[in-house]
């Protein structure tokens, strides 16, 4: 039941229907994960913090970070595994397509915080606080992903070189990374925080969710899976029953652990901590299951089919949706609250309404922006001229996995 890691072979065609290396299954996985991450944010902000049901649902939805980072490593290595990588060019492109939107959206969300949540600050304090939002990835609750991605982009040329130099040891590297991830998660969850929060260790501890090391296993796993793409694809196809059983059992364990935390007096929010080591099996099996679903879907799609084009278009716009949807959710909860008096008591109707509003308005925003000169600045995508039909990509783009 182990994945046989082999040197890269000619690309399989069953899931790369575009014929030039584009992985259609990745598009679907990206879209499904995005639907889930929006659900995480909507459920969080439309339900009472004491809701056992809502946070039990969030327990299972918190896989999104792991899938995002797996795809980040996967797409990058699949793109560069057979061609040379010029670090300077790579860094300039990545910092431009992700770094600039990160700065722009940090400033935008910081402006919202300043307008509605804080008194006016002196210029010096304002700039200090803005800088803190930038380097800590806390301009808004979702921007940590871009900061972690930027950290990995800096490391990626070295990671790729190391993978190429250690082909025969990838199993050992993967196992070592898993053990390290378990240790990191145990420490972040159960060790007391440093007493001096201003020290270097205290700063690292306080910002653990925005550090690349907190997600290193899923990044490395994605890199190794893509490096041995053909073997990984064959293993996924041959072990679907194992994946589904693992998914079911790990889900049961995750929910049981959530119940144990509740029994020990934790609030629902604390009981569903994202970085808990007990959640790692669930995250790992969700990654495999979503990739399996994407692979089966892609293998059944004719090249250029309607659904392939729809999913490709959704995938292309997903980074922009990721960036703007919290603003749309904020608008809904602050401007349309008259629809839901005592809104945290409204439950499912509020959650569904907020979800639909956030998705639809975000897609409208992105559809407009992607056809303007601001496309690269705001959503890290090349401009699409008005009237141009959407086509499936001819080759994989090393874009953010959340995109």
TrEMBL record:
Cell location: Cell membrane
How is it placed in the membrane, per its record?
Multi-pass membrane protein
The record's listing under InterPro entries reads: Acyl_transf_3_dom
Task: Identify the residues that the record assigns to the Acyltransferase domain, covering every copy.
Answer: 25-365
Q: Which Pfam families match?
A: Acyl_transf_3 (PF01757)
Major site of localization recorded for this protein: membrane
GO MF annotations, alphabetized: acyltransferase activity
Reading the lineage from the top rank, the first entry is Bacteria
* Signal sequence bounds: none
- The transmembrane segments are 28-46, 58-80, 100-121, 141-161, 173-191, 211-230, 242-260, 280-298, 310-332, 352-370
Q: What keywords were assigned to this record?
A: Acyltransferase, Cell membrane, Membrane, Transferase, Transmembrane, Transmembrane helix
Its family? Belongs to the acyltransferase 3 family.
What is the designated name of this protein?
Acyltransferase
